[in-house]
Amino acid sequence: MKKKKIALIPGDGIGPEVISEGVKVLKAIEQVDANLSFEFTEYPWGCEYYLEHGKMMDENGLDQLKDTDAIYLGAVGYPGVPDHISLWDLLLKIRKGFDQYVNLRPVTLLNPSLTPLKNKTEKEIDFLVIRENSEGEYAGAGDWLFKGKPEEVVLQTGVFSRKGTERIIRYAFEEARKQKKTLTSISKANALNYSMVFWDEVFDEVGKEYPDVVTYSYLVDAASMFFVQQPERFEIVVTSNLFGDILTDIGAAITGGMGLATGANINPEREFPSMFEPVHGSAPDISGKGLANPIAAIWSVAQMMEFFGEEKWSELIVTTIKELLEENEHLTPDLGGNATTEELGNQFIKLLTGQDAITY
Predict the structure, then answer these.
(1) Average pLDDT of every residue of the chain
(2) What is the C-alpha R_g of the chain?
(3) Claim: this prediction has a pTM higher than 0.85
(4) Which SMART domains match (predicted)?
(5) N vs C: which end of the chain shows fewer Cβ within 10 Å?
(6) At what angle are helices 341-353 and 15-32 packed, to 10 degrees?
């Protein structure tokens, strides 16, 4: 039996609600698959923890997490706690501390009714964005000079190292080769004359080692347009931290909204645990009302299963999400339905396993 230790960080707002449904999926898998077992440890970290303790997580939080097989994160953010604190002191602290330098965001249309784009089908909106997840514009480097004075200057420095840039581009080439798909690099070398020129040069250098991979390169403004007008151009995409953050929200918009947006933060060498999360945010305005859509959280379980080498379960989870959307009877209000978060989750379990859900 494969025993997996999973750290749960439900977080803030709707985070605990959607993570609860994802845990039910894992428990359902455990019930029907004699080869898998999951051990859960929950951590109360987040903005409420910050308001009580003055910190987003324990000082030795990374030490507590390091021996787990995966981290399952709900959402972080709440009124009264500045966004830069909630982001840097928990989410980015984990990403950087565990060198989760690969961010995987699928842009996949699960049902044709979900896209606002006319005449676009599931076949035309189906690609993977591989985002650099450790440096770039989110390196935290810079300075704030002459604060409060007329000559005030703020410097935000993007950091692009040879190691960081080459490893994410090489990862993308390997993925494109494995899937036998095209690879598109997205940058902005015409305006960012150091960082993005370097990015493009590294992309070209690494590409020489992969003559079997067909490549394209777009400026980020043109790519944004193509995401909306011609998403069929893309199969595998690789881009920087900031551009990936923005472009994948466009990807969410064309596939049904943030309630369907999932992301994986991967340490490919498996020296540290990887982290899986819905990326829709904490949505405090609907917290506790049973309105949250748990599909993104469930989809992130599929990403976790793929990372564990359980491709069968990963594919079955995604197929079941499609079945749930096609059934169209147990959807949350953001998808035009009347179901609660829990009702959608329970119906998903029935479709996945034929059994009732185990309450978490």
Answers:
(1) 96
(2) 20
(3) yes
(4) Iso_dh
(5) N
(6) 20
